Amino acid sequence: MQRELWRRASAVFEQALEVEADRRSEWLAAQCVGDEALLVLVQRLLAADEGSGEFLERPFAGGADVGDPGEGASFGAYRAVERIGMGGMGEVWRAQRADGAFEQHVAIKRLLYPTPDLVRRFQHERRVLARLHHPNIAQLFDGGLGADGVPYFVMEYVDGEPLDAWCDARGLGIDARIDLFLQVCDAVQYAHRNLVVHRDLKPSNILVTAEGQVKLLDFGIAKLIEATADGEATATIVQRLTPDYAAPEQVRGEAVTTATDVYALGMVLCELLAGERAYRVAGGDLANAIVAAEPAAPSAIAARGAAAARDRAPTLRGDLDRIVLRALAKEPERRYAGAESLAADLRRFRSGHPVLARGDDVWYRARKFAGRNRAAIAAAAAVVAALVAATAVSLHHARRAQRQAQRAEAEKAFVLGILDANDPNDTQGKGETLTARQILDRASERIGKDLADQPAVAAEIYDEIGNLYWDYGQYERALPLYEQSARLAETAGLPDAQRVGILVDLGTDQRMLRRLDDALATFERTDALARESDGEGSELELRVRAEQSTTLVYAGRFAEADAIARGVVDGVGRARAHDSEVYSDALNALAYVRLSWQHYEDAVELLRQVVALNRALHPRIHSAVSTSLNDLGYSLAGAGHLVEAEAALREAAQIHAELLGKAHPHYAGTLANLARVIDREGRFEEAHGMLDEAFATRRQALGDEAISLDGTWRALALNALHRGDAAAARQAGRRALELDLGAYGPRHPVVALSQLVLGQALAETGDADEAERLLRDAAETGDAMFGTPNDTSGVARASLARLFARHGRADAAWPLFERALAELRGAVGEDHCAYADALAWQGEAQLAAGDAAAAPTLRAAVAAARRAYPDGNPFGREREALLAQADARAR
Is the pTM of this model over 0.70? Predict the structure, then answer.
């Protein structure tokens, strides 16, 4: 009787999941009329599926053992052959195809005790597996209910051994073990990209076939990242996970992310290379160790292990120790960004290139210093952390070990000297409390003296301090540091790849200062060095080419930039998977060209891919995610998709605020972009407040003369126009144009944008002659730089036609309106706000001139505004009022 009830309940439950939630109760009551037990059981199953905590605390008493199906039992088209595994949740049978269609061996997974909780988890695993199709993940084939009503699913049968046992049985060396582990990383990265965190990675869940193919198994407690809740109590998860491989946040019962799987991968890698896990304790002591104790280095573990492991210890010492320990960092944010990043560092090790993982000895000293002197160090924390990051260099070849050790010691001494100089408890010093900027200034002044006999070390620290200035928009202050770093890197004989990185920093800074000829020359030199170092078409060379493309955009040379960026995307696509960080960066470079060239829809399509990739590759709070969301929002606004643009920019601003704080210029830049969209949607006062905040933050960080302020000045000018403050618009527009002319000269696409805004402001203040000149220049420059049609020239000509109409020059206004509308129709389409505005200006001019065409034009303008703007915006209301006037006159 119990088994029959389960069979019926499972069938009704499966159907209920397909019914809309608001209709489900009524539907369920109709299905269970007269059967209270069935109704209660299905309700409990549904509650479990929705993740009810109360349900988990009160298991259903009717979850009896369903019994052994026995050999020969049928599961759809398959027949059980032998039981091959059993656990607390269920059992696994090897089965074979029984319908004669073809020969196939599979694994059947079924529940032993089908309580509602287990049913829910079982079905969750089936849903997870259904979305994963990867050669290194065991594939789901089918699923259903057995003859006894118990759910099962059919999976790929993997005839293999656990990863560690497979390697040990064959006596594999380090390189072969890493090769297999890279397959594991590929599978985990694929799962992350499909929004799945495994949460229980361990060697027994990683099988290797006789052919050497890795297969990842058991997604029973995997988490769908996109879910708003796990649907399962955290305590339940903690009880089921394997503690030997659990991350600190899992032990503490905190939220898990892709970084949790990175930790488990680090533990698996440690065991694979060293022969043991990083902690040699058990039970409660193990949990405490995972949370509080530092893991042992793989080389130290191997040195005390079996003979085969001891043989591997010398090779593990150095880079592989650092790679494993980075993956095992206590704090998720200090681990690798994802499985792909871990794999990339292993590949760097295999190819003899410097790895990204670095030692921590000086960092711990810095953190202890900060703990003693929180008030003194708070403002300088970012400075210290970044300086410390420069204090370890990978060792790859024995003959370089002594030289590298000397460099690391010199770097350490320099950084600790900076820290000690800021120690309020230093009785020999002044006990000063320094700001972050003061620490940077002191550090940059001391490099030449303290490291005069260590030019290679000085080159690295000059570059690091330059990066810190750069991060805060201090481009002028960073430039001499980058220049000195580049000179020393060449004379000190740093590796070509490291010199390329320094030169890229220099070229990027020159670009931000709009020293574009210098920047292009730097990138040409850097490209040659990258080709010499890693070869033409290498990842290093393609990264340089991407920066070259961006610099050409700044110079207004869009066609050249586009050709280079397309080449980078093609080159990366041939060499790397399309789910890599490198591919994301390549797409982003091409998107930047298309956005700047006003090919907005192309940019949107590319940036949607970039955002999706970055979400899969990184945690939510990551600069790559926020930056790509900012770029997507800006592109959506350019394409006229205002509501979607606002959503993307709000999320970008939120992440920037959490990541950097609201006093950072990057946050302020995103806030200004959001304000532009809100202003375009017609919420002028809200936008005004945001622009004031963004401008104040950026001006304080960058200085009054920073060219990067030009876009904020333009946004302030447009907002002032919309608020009816033409004088303020004129002032802001003139300041934007002054900055742009000083940076670019008279013939540049950005100059055209400022000419357009200032021309519109002057038209409102009555400065008709200057307004006409600027609007003509904007239209002509737009044609020359963007090509035809383009929206800058279209809006400039529509604004000029409006100016002519207001000043009685109808003969010039009407054909110019028609030309402008045709250009905008071709450039952005009839659903865009720029087209809607131009059409309204034409109707307004016709109405003022008493032209009978005013009513149909304004009717079309009202319809265009409804397509372009959100409901209830002032632009639409203004046009409806004009249409009412035109209709009244026509009557």
Answer: no
